[in-house]
């Protein structure tokens, strides 16, 4: 895999910083405060930039008396209430300045990037561009967020100099969470301007910036809309239900768990209808039989357009028992019935595999004459693959760009060509020929060149259709996954659940690869051994990173191992396991080499405990961290309570604060961490994780998940360059004491009396209170860290012996949800 940039040599070029000074983006503006425009503004605010958000002056505003910027102002207010949250921290709303097109265009002179995001109407866009152009400064970048109109045509009447700085930047909704930005150049666009925005989107906005051709619907909407409309047609042909389609087009093939119809409800059926109509009107593809289903028209006529109107393909209805029941639409009658769980033997078998590639191969190997799921896949997937193959050169130059767009824009684990490789190109083409299905010309070209797959050499090379040969997959150095380091540098040590990978420059990475990255004894013992002072790893490497290439950092300790131990009453074994986990986190904290943890996605329970003990944390923006042990009837037993107490006491010692036991400042900070642990709070962003004290003020945040490993490695090198010295065990921790413990327990009592919590919740919370205040120690008694670890272990073991704890663990393992008992 060639480690260079997708856009010229922007990212890896040694002259990169100097070359991009021409387009230094420090302030932005968004024109149009609708759903998309306002959310783009919010995410730019998340990146730390001030943003000007402009919209029309409403016709009913009376001169200067009314609020002439009410549309933009109300949009910012709505952002604060939006779900999913648009801001990573609600205070970031202050970075957006509302305004209007009549009074505030002069303010655009201070903006380095202006994004047009008004209605999808060519004349409306052109009229606004003509009004805006005179107010932009000489190096301002001007882009459109159109979802399908020709970018060149929109900007055709702009001044010649501005046309060099005009191109498309198509965000996907919601912009905070969807990684894709399609960048659509025109024949006149300046390459440096394109590079500047691509780099900014990558580094500052955390986006996967993919170059797209200036054709209708660009890449992701073109292929995604075809897939959705074709799925409708197949559903009708094969007599499948909505729930069945959502099961078949979900995680089993590496697509989001929403499936097709739940996704439509989430996005909005009106938006789907608009995109589909634009697709059908603007494209002239080989599949003329793909049409807008009548049910879409009917749903829009009824205003049943999904979640925003509380019904679409699905709706929820409260039954006589007070419980909410999910109903599903029957398209033939336009009536709702109770939703049922589909049952497909092939799908159930495929779910046993953790590999999406293996699952795709399994469902495609099934006999379509005997299995309804196989029948669907044998029609839907080859048609998707053929359609995608015919788009190479039209929507994007390479198949790699198409795959990246579908992964980032629709959250597919694999793009269509990687999916085809998983099924086997030569095998499927042979079956397609036998069935009389048309074979795309580019596929024939691949096979004629001796190719058997779209990618080869572990995905580091792809078949370039234009040149008829394999070329290296171009990847920015900073985007290299751990897998690429494994190929280039090798693995220093490993077992079935964890590897120690050489990242180069004297830094190694502990990579989890257990199921859901759960933390079992194999991971615990491995990390503990490798971080011992005289280990080969410590002698060979100057620093360490803990990260992985998975969907989530870690879901926490292996609960199945724990449950089996509880059921067999192996208390000594459980005690040994807790001690081992504590020894691992202590090894991370006191290692002579700096250990940087890179948490992302779900970082729960033991995952958060590992993170808390690192020398530094380099977190991804989308971090869902939490000490969630209370949800399964336990307390954090790997040092989580200890570290949170230390953070609370340190916070109370800030200038002007009183850290002494029993002081108001001390009690308030301890109450804060007590509530975080006892309520099993989980952050909704890295910014909130900082507020919960899972991250400190000195920890760093990466906007782009693809850069996380590289950023964490840089942090380890920075610590080394600054002369890193490992901390020593603290022995001067002043016990908060019994009075603080009584205060915390009084709060628990009142919560129980108010029936906000159960008896077992109260028992768990009281254990947490005891640990955080030093057990039976009197206020001010000096404790060391080991004393607090012993308190944690005692409470953890005690709760393991509770029947309700065992019930909670079993329920969570079965359902993935907490039990309130």
Question: Which terms summarize this structure?
Answer:
821 residues; alpha/beta; Rossmann fold; N-(1-d-carboxylethyl)-l-norvaline Dehydrogenase, domain 2; 2-enoyl-CoA Hydratase, Chain A, domain 1; 4 domains; eight-stranded mixed β-sheet; seven-stranded mixed β-sheet; 13% strand; globular; disordered N terminus
Characterization of this structure:
The chain is an alpha/beta fold and 821 residues long. It has four domains: 16-212, Rossmann fold, CATH 3.40.50.720; 220-472, N-(1-d-carboxylethyl)-l-norvaline Dehydrogenase, domain 2 (Orthogonal Bundle), CATH 1.10.1040.50; 480-628 and 682-727, Alpha-Beta Complex (2-enoyl-CoA Hydratase, Chain A, domain 1), CATH 3.90.226; 637-681 and 728-821, no CATH class. 43% of the residues lie in helices and 13% in strands. The strands form six sheets. It has an eight-stranded mixed sheet with strand order 3-2-1-4-5-6-7-8. A seven-stranded mixed sheet has the order 15-16-17-18-19-21-23, sandwiched between helices. It has a three-stranded antiparallel sheet with strand order 9-10-11. α21 (521-530) runs parallel beside α24 (571-590). The chain is globular. The two termini are 52 Å apart.
């Amino acid at each position: 895999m060639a480690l260079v940039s997708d856009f010229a040599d922007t990212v890896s070029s040694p002259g990169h910083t100097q070359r991009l000074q021409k387009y230094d983006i420090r302030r932005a503006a968004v024109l149009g405060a609708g759903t998309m425009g306002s959310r783009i503004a919010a995410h730019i605010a998340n990146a730390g930039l001030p943003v000007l958000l402009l919209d029309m002056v409403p016709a009913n505003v009376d001169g200067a008396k009314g609020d002439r910027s009410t549309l933009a102002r109300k949009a910012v207010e709505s952002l604060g209430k939006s779900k999913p949250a648009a801001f990573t921290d609600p205070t970031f709303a202050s970075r957006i300045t509302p305004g209007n097109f009549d009074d505030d265009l002069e303010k655009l002179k201070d903006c380095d990037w202006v994004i047009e995001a008004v209605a999808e109407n060519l004349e409306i866009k052109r009229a606004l561009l003509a009004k805006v152009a005179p107010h932009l400064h000489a190096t301002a970048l001007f882009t459109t967020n159109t979802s399908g109109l020709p970018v060149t045509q929109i900007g055709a009447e702009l001044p010649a100099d501005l046309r060099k700085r005009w191109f498309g930047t198509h965000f996907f909704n919601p912009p905070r969470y969807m990684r894709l930005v399609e960048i659509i150049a025109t024949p006149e666009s300046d390459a440096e301007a394109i590079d500047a925005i691509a780099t900014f989107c990558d580094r500052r906005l955390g986006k996967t910036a993919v170059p797209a051709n200036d054709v209708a619907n660009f890449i992701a909407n073109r292929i995604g809309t075809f897939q959705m409309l074709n799925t409708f047609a197949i559903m009708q042909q094969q007599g499948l239900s909505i729930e069945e389609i959502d099961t078949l087009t979900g995680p089993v093939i590496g697509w989001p768990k929403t499936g097709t119809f739940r996704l439509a409800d989430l996005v909005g059926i009106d938006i789907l209808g608009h995109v589909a109509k634009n697709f059908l009107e603007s494209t002239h593809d080989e599949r003329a039989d793909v049409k807008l289903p009548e049910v879409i028209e009917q749903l829009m006529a009824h205003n049943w357009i999904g979640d925003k109107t509380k019904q679409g393909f699905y709706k929820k209805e409260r039954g006589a028992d007070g419980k909410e029941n999910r109903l599903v639409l029957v398209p033939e009658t336009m009536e709702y019935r109770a939703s049922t769980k589909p049952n497909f033997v092939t799908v159930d078998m495929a779910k046993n595999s953790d590999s999406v590639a293996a699952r795709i191969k399994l469902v495609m190997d099934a006999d379509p004459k005997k299995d309804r799921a196989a029948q669907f896949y044998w029609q839907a997937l080859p048609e998707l693959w053929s359609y995608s193959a015919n788009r190479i050169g039209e929507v994007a130059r390479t198949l790699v760009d198409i795959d990246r767009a579908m992964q980032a824009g629709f959250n597919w684990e694999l793009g269509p060509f990687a999916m085809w490789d998983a099924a086997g190109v030569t095998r499927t083409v042979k079956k397609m020929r036998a069935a009389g299905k048309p074979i795309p010309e580019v596929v024939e070209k691949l096979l004629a060149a001796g190719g058997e797959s779209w990618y080869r050499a572990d995905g580091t090379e792809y078949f370039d259709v234009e040149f008829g040969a394999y070329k290296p997959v171009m990847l920015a150095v900073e985007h290299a996954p751990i897998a690429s380091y494994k190929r280039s540098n090798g693995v220093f040590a490993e077992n079935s659940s964890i590897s120690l990978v050489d990242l180069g420059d004297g830094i190694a990475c502990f990579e989890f690869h257990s199921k859901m990255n759960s933390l079992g004894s194999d991971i615990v013992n491995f990390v503990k051994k490798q971080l011992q002072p005289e280990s080969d790893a410590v002698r060979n490497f100057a620093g360490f990173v803990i990260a992985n290439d998975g969907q989530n950092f870690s879901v926490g300790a292996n609960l199945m191992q724990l449950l089996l131990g509880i059921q067999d009453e192996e208390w000594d074994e459980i005690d040994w396991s807790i001690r081992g986990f504590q020894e691992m986190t202590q090894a991370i904290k006191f290692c002579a080499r700096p250990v940087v943890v890179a948490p992302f996605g779900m970082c729960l329970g033991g995952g958060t405990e590992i993170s808390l003990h690192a020398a530094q944390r380099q977190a991804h923006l989308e971090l869902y961290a939490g000490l969630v042990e209370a949800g399964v009837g336990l307390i954090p037993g790997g040092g989580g309570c200890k570290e949170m107490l230390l953070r609370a006491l340190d916070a109370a010692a800030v200038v002007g604060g009183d850290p002494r036991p029993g002081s108001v400042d001390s009690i308030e900070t301890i109450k804060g961490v007590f509530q975080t642990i006892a309520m099993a709070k989980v952050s909704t962003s890295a910014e909130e994780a900082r507020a919960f004290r899972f991250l400190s003020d000195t920890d760093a945040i990466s906007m782009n998940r693809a850069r996380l490993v590289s950023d964490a490695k840089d942090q380890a090198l920075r610590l080394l360059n600054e002369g890193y010295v490992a901390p020593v065990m603290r022995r001067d921790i002043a016990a908060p004491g019994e009075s603080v413990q009584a205060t915390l327990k009084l709060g628990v009592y009142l919560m129980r009396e108010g029936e906000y919590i159960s008896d077992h919740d109260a028992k768990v919370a009281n254990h947490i209170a005891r640990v955080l205040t030093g057990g039976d120690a009197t206020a001010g008694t000096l404790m060391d860290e080991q004393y607090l670890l012993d308190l944690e272990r005692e409470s953890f073991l005690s709760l393991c012996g509770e029947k309700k704890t065992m019930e909670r663990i079993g329920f969570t393992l079965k359902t993935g949800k907490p039990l309130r008992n």
